[in-house]
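anyone seen this seq b4? input:
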Amino acid sequence: MDSQINQYIPVAMLALVAALFVGGMLVGSVICGKIGRRTKIKDTAYECGMLPVGDGQSRMSIKFYLVAMLFILFDIEVVFLYPWAVIYKRMLQENAALIFGSMFSFLGILFIGYIYALKKRAFDWK
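predicted toks r here
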């Protein structure tokens, strides 16, 4: 039983060192920081050289979200193609019709979705 507890001593030491490090950094930042010497200009938000005027959350067009969802859809398609490409040679020797049929049906359904998105003008930014 003692040997199991002894195995956790390095973990406890690491946690103690991490806590001391975090505490030291926080105390050091307070000591080294120039509290009271901050101006109003220094405390304003800075965003790419523009003054922070107006609402922080501007409304975006629904087209942006639609294109983002379509990107995710086609990105997931690429993720599904990787395992297929990895086992392509082995599956080609064992069952060529199955591998081609499954992938062509997958790509066909995706292509139909792509054509649908084109016809609905989902990719237009106007």
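Helices lie at 2-7, 9-32, 40-43, 62-86, 88-94, 96-119. The chain has two domains: 2-43, 62-119. kinda curious what u guys think
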